[in-house]
Amino acid sequence: MLSEWHGHLTHNLRRSPHTVRAYVATAERLLRFEGVTPEWDALAGAEQQILRHYLADRRIDGLSNTSTARELSAIKSFLKFCRERFGKTGQSAPRIRGPRVKKGIPRAVTPDEVVNLTELVDESASEAWIGARDRAVLLLLYGSGLRIAEALSLDGEALPLGDRLVVTGKGGKQRTVPVLPLVREAVEAYIRATPYTLNPKQPLFRGARGGRLSQGTVQRAVARARHALGLPPTATPHALRHSFATHLLGAGADLRSLQELLGHASLGSTQIYTMVDAATLLDVYRNAHPREAE
């Protein structure tokens, strides 16, 4: 059952490896829970009460509201798969309301901080080509608004870079993003420096041993540079994508265009950046207004 669920998430829904691991782990916990019968027909007709007991048990384990909401989402997705697998697509799902989760405001970094971060990551790398690689990746996140997984999934067929780049995002959806001259130059500098031959069907960004560069490697490089620069823990690779959105919005970009550039399925996901921009303005006001200074 878990193997089929894994395959469905990976090949049919095209979820990220992180999501696949989390959803499969949730399904495994559910199948082992007392009172749950690990059979397709039983799960297809799972009752609301047993699911409530499962979630209550998870909350006792110390799960936060956010984690509980994710767990519930994974369960609903798994049970939907069970109903489809057993031919009960017409049967309604158990109605369970998850905990309220307050949406956090993404924390952007300033343009100067982006420059300092990318330069230090470049300078402090163990080898020159690795520094050029990491700088190119980070500038793609900030300059084109890519998710880190999107940048690292690029293959050599994306070369040579023009002023636009087609990327594949969540759910296999493609979108076109701009490539600024600075970003293009950084990628070209990496290409000249890398010891590996970049073939169209092989990864663009390589790890030290030649395989596809991992997210963890980039995150660790940023963490070291962040600590050296005294930046907050929120200054992560993903924060560069937030900064791309925040700075564009602050410069007058409209929400619909920003939604397309970020690859958001709904406008609601993009609207959170209006809160970010308002928060930035409030910080400026507090730091500069004469009455606030008093």
Secondary-structure element series: HHHHHHHHEEHHHHHH
Number of domains: 2
Q: Compute the number of strand runs.
A: 2
Measured distance between first and last alpha carbons: 65 Å
Helix-strand makeup class: mainly alpha
Oligomer: single chain
Tally of separate helices: 14
Helix share bin: 55-70%
State the shape. Answer: elongated
Global mean pLDDT: 81
Strand content: under 5%
CATH class wording of the largest domain: Mainly Alpha
CATH fold field value of the largest domain: hpI Integrase, Chain A
**What is the topology, as strand order, of the major beta sheet?**
1-2
Low-confidence stretches: none
CATH architecture of the largest domain: Orthogonal Bundle
Give the CATH superfamily of the largest domain.
Intergrase catalytic core
Biggest β-sheet description? 2 strands, antiparallel
Structural summary, described in words:
The chain is mainly α and 294 residues long. The chain is 61% helix and 3% strand. It is elongated, with a radius of gyration of 22 Å. The mean pLDDT is 81.
